[in-house]
Amino acid sequence: MSTNIDSARKILGDLASTRSNREELYKYFHQHPELSMQERGTADRIVQQLEASGIPTTRIGETGVLATIENGAGPTVAMRADIDALPVKEVSGKDYASTATQLDEKSGTEVPVAHACGHDFHLMSLITALQAFNAHKDEWSGTFIGVFQPAEETADGARAMLDADLKDVMPRPDVYLGQHVLASLPCGYVGTRPGPVLSSAFSVKVVVHGKGSHGSMPELGVDPVVLASTIVMRLQTIVSREVAAKETAVVTVGAIHAGTKSNIITDSAELLINTRAYNSAVSEHLKEAIERIVRAECVAARSPQEPEFTYYDRYPLTDNDGDTTATVREAFDAYFGDEACDLDAVPASEDFSIIPDALGVPYTYWGLGGFADLSKAVGNHNPAFAPDLQPTLDRGAEAIVVAASAWLTK
């Protein structure tokens, strides 16, 4: 392992001399965020930066980018970075904070946009790692692939790249890697864990039907507001009474939409439900239980029509391969020392595993600490989420090179 780490240090030897330029490029991406599946400017700038460094790129779909460095015989390592941003108005107070807005092509409305999840750190870290590997080809052999993936936030991006024939363009990797900047780790730390690291998730829109009436004559109608309320309360028993204590599950009703006026009993109600689980069997049970409870409550309420279920935002379980994770952890321990740590399972969800699962490739996904003062750190998707520029920017690139070097510098 010492030889691998020595090579990784040499590959990373330009970090200090390139830091100023990299920080400026990071600020550009931070100030020019783009919504999911609309990352055209982001993809264009990624291609521009890489091709200026002599790194060949291929567009996958409209906004996905594949960068491939072939350097003789050896393993093939792929590293993924997500590139989309969120419809959030940034309030971080940074002097380079985003003030961008963008037309949401789905809704047709202009919305504020910010990298409130840290994807700008991810894509910058991967650009830096690609440039480092390309500049020091004498220190490694094999193939290193950068996968710049759109639309992680909507769970559309990984599937879109596969639909755009990613399999036919990308050399099949021996291992697939990913990382995410987090507020739960100290700044500069990298955290790993084997097994489930990010939960599976799905959302479902449920529409239940009633019978409209005047608010003074409820006996003539079927009240879907009361029906929706009983469903919300009954759903709480799924986790407390149907999921084993050793398992983890979340069922959240994030929104109820019904009615227009206090004295009108409306004829339908809509519930938006989200779930999380670290076990595919538990996730399937949540789906079955939600439908069972909704249907039963509709029967009890004399609903005149069957409920409607529309599923969306489906995220698979991110389940780190044990051997791959052990290899990366050993490299992290050797390079980062005490700043390599165990990562607790994170209840958030990702579409990262869709591509390696489709390719039949082992993968591992780690966390990157982003805030020096954890007492002031805010979680991903918070409008104030903006990790400390350094050492986060350097550490993200270091983590990629160190992890990939465990295969490429043997």
Describe the structure.
The protein has two domains: 1-196 and 317-408, Zn peptidases (Aminopeptidase), CATH 3.40.630.10; 200-314, Alpha-Beta Plaits. A hairpin with a 4-residue loop joins strand 4 (101-104) and strand 5 (109-112). It has helices at residues 2-11, 15-31, 40-52, 119-135, 157-163, 166-169, 224-242, 280-300, 322-336, 354-359, 392-408, and strands at residues 57-60, 64-71, 76-82, 101-104, 109-112, 142-149, 175-186, 190-192, 195-198, 200-209, 213-214, 249-258, 264-265, 268-277, 308-315, 318-320, 340-342, 363-371. The N and C termini lie close together (8 Å). The strands form five sheets. It has an eight-stranded mixed β-sheet, sandwiched between helices. The chain has a four-stranded antiparallel β-sheet with strand order 12-14-10-15, with helices on one face. A two-stranded antiparallel sheet has the order 4-5. Helix content is 36%, strand content 27%. The protein has eleven helices and 18 strands. It is α+β, with helices and mostly antiparallel strands and 410 residues long. It holds the Pfam family Peptidase_M20. This is Amidohydrolase. Keywords: Hydrolase, Manganese, Metal-binding. Mn(2+) binds at residues 117, 119, 153, 180, 381. Residues 201-299 form the Peptidase M20 dimerisation domain.
